[in-house]
Design a protein that fits this description.
With 328 residues, the chain is α/β, with parallel strands linked by helices. It is built from twelve helices and six strands. Helix 7 packs antiparallel against helix 10, helix 8 packs antiparallel against helix 9 and helix 9 runs antiparallel to helix 10.
């Protein structure tokens, strides 16, 4: 039985896809990780899973997949099934199971693992049933993995580890869990940052459009809701709950930066022979720059962890934004 750390909960239940050939022991791995039998286990000749089936734990979800079988058509079907599933679903890490009892890693295994990596998904190799081959056979498989799949972490596993202390010492169940937590966290942060960047881009475009207004001192009132909405959306992406104090500080920070933008552009709008066009050009640059800086600082803050509300409410956050704007 594996003890799960708080990390699983912190990343909002990672989704794990386990794949591999029929008879690789995927369902057995799931049952070992759960600490009880939740997935039906068949024999090597008869696959028990068809399609992709989720098994939901309070701290994570593992998606079991049907295994590939011999034959070019069946293997092409399997490859398409996995790639389509990766494209359509929100998996955070892939476990690729290969039975050490086979004593080899096939070209299909190597090809599919590399393809998954190219698609940007964290993937690791699970050598299951490591108690079945002899030491030389197992070492040969590990050497192949190191040569053909450089950079892919390999974990030696056996579901018989609970009853054999010596075997348990050579297995990597706990390391697999720790690695999966770390990689799932990193992948989730990557996805969240991409979503935050989209929001920041839209907000900077909107801020720039507002700053083109030829009406003196109109910018601040219109920029406040744009920047406030951006900040709230970014906090929402990272699952940060905002209290009243944080909301007040957000509005205050947005107002301060927006007023600075209005002065930068609107004062020029009063200068003879410069007029609205000259003022607007400068004001657009200010508006987009400070909006982008503010958005990225909020995203950085969310990824830094700790007491987000306290950090955001501190004066150093606003000072830091102003400093970054000056240094741009």
């Amino acid at each position: 039985m594996i003890t799960y750390t708080k990390g699983w909960v912190d990343i909002n239940k990672p989704n794990i896809l386990i794949i591999g050939k029929t008879g690789a022991g995927k369902s057995s791995v799931i049952n070992y990780v759960f600490g009880r039998e939740v997935a039906p286990v068949g024999n090597v000749a008869e696959p028990m899973t068809r399609g992709i089936i989720p098994y939901d734990h309070e701290s994570f979800t593992i998606y079991d997949s049907e295994g590939y079988e011999l034959g070019d058509d069946k293997q092409r079907h399997y490859e398409r099934l996995i790639l389509d599933s990766l494209a359509e679903s929100e998996y955070h890490i892939v476990w690729y199971a290969i039975p050490a009892a086979d004593k080899r890693i096939t070209e299909l295994d190597i090809k599919l693992i590399k393809r998954i990596k190219r698609e940007g998904f964290p993937v690791c190799l699970l050598l299951t049933k490591v108690d079945e081959p002899d030491e030389k056979q197992l070492n040969d498989m590990l050497a192949t993995a190191n040569e053909k799949l450089a950079g892919v972490n390999v974990f030696r596993l056996s579901v018989n580890a609970n009853n054999n202390p010596a075997l348990a010492a050579s297995c990597n169940w706990k390391k697999l869990v720790d690695y999966s937590i770390e990689k799932a966290e990193q992948y989730l942060l990557k996805l969240k940052r991409e979503e935050a960047n989209t929001i920041i881009t839209k907000a900077t475009v909107a801020a720039g459009a507002v700053a083109l207004s030829p009406i003196p001192f109109s910018d601040a009132a219109l920029l406040v809701p744009i920047q406030t909405a951006m900040i709230f959306k970014i906090f929402s992406i990272y699952g940060v709950s905002l209290g009243k104090a944080v909301v007040t500080n957000v509005a205050s920070a947005v107002l301060t930066t927006a007023i600075g933008q209005s002065f930068a552009g609107n004062l020029l709008k009063f200068i003879p022979f410069v007029g609205s066009i000259g003022g607007a050009i400068i004001n657009t640059g200010v508006a987009t720059a400070i909006t982008g800086i503010l958005g990225n600082m909020v995203a950085d803050l969310c990824e830094s962890g700790g007491d987000i509300e306290r950090k955001f409410s501190s004066s150093s956050f606003i000072v830091g934004a102003v400093q970054k704007f000056k240094e741009r």
